[in-house]
Amino acid sequence: MHNLSEILSGPGRSIAIAGHVHPDGDCIGSCVGLLLYIEENYPQHRAAVFLEETKGALLFLTEGRGIRSAVPEGMQFDQLILCDVSSPDRIGVCPELLAAVEDTVSIDHHISNPGICRINHIEPEASSCSEVLAGLMDAERISPEAAEALYTGIVHDSGVFQYGSTSPRTMRTAAMLMEKGIPFSRIIQESFFARSFAESRALGFVLSRAELSGGGLLAVGSITAAEMQEIGAGLPDLDGIAAQLRLIRGTEAAAFFYETAPGSVKVSLRSTNYLNVSELAGRFGGGGHVRAAGCTLSGTVEEAKAALVPVLLDALSEGGAPAL
Ligand code: AMP
Ligand code: MN
Ligand code: MN
Predict the structure, then answer these.
(1) What's the pLDDT score for residue 55?
(2) Is 294 in the pocket of ligand 1 (CB under 6 A)?
(3) 3-state DSSP percent of the chain in helix, strand and coil, to 5
(4) Per-residue pLDDT tens for 70-110?
(5) Of the residues 83, 85, 90, 264, which should be mutated to test ligand 1's pocket, given the most ligand atoms within 8 Å of the CB?
(6) Residue 167: C-alpha distances to residues 122, 126, 163, 174, 252 (Å)
(7) Which ligand 1 atom is the nearest neighbour of the CA of 87?
(8) Is the pTM of this model over 0.90?
């Protein structure tokens, strides 16, 4: 696909746009940016976004946009467009639509995405799904509101233009969106850097108990459900902790373990220069990107650490799992 017109032209139809479970800035920015682009340039279509509840810092993107958290009984769609979704089991609100809708499209940047739709447009080198989408849009037809959503997505997935996935094209795309007159400073400060009190306490708790291993190459942090309750934090307050662990000087990788339900532990993996964490997460049924990936293990936090940390240390001692 070279342009979204290849999938959006033609007679009016109903389009469902959906993102992944626990939607992040890129996922929400992509879905909302695409929704606005369709509404503004293809008024013959009827589009709706399906996303799980949005956390506070990103509400400015979703409020008043008619985002749906369930598929109403009897509602039918001619087309399904998945944004930032790497596998069928990662679809947030409406996984059933993947089989029910005939015309399905995946727009993504996950290296682990095997191509789950009829049309698959996956750019693993892109910083974000929002960057991929912006590249498929006609720049002059992107409104300031759509630009705000896509810019937010790029900012979040690139860590404010910091991660290795940031390219000259990322910067050119951001510049194009900036030229629409968006409040870029406020977006970065309020949606990316600002932390609630609960998020700050959770971060402090995990960092204060973090451990280094592998001669300082690996930082490991964790939090149980009971500990979260003790400090007054919930699961949505844990975003960004893995990235902070990775900032510890000298580390190549970080692993953050957190209990999402009794007997279920989510692991967020991050690396800096060479460790392919997508490949490692894949061995445990997860996936993601080369430098940011995740998986879910069953058992306690301690059991999950016992299963995963030796594998990470092995990979680090070998100089990293096969890179891209
Ligand atoms: P997280 O650690 O949840 O911030 O996720 C980092 C990256 O890995 C994101 O791009 C996710 O989409 C991806 N990811 C996280 N968990 C999984 C999983 N269980 N399966 C596949 N991809 C995942
Ligand atoms: Mn995402
Ligand atoms: Mn993304």
Answers:
(1) 84
(2) yes
(3) 40, 20, 40
(4) 999 989 999 999 999 999 999 999 999 999 999 999 999 99
(5) 90
(6) 16, 8, 9, 11, 21
(7) 21
(8) yes
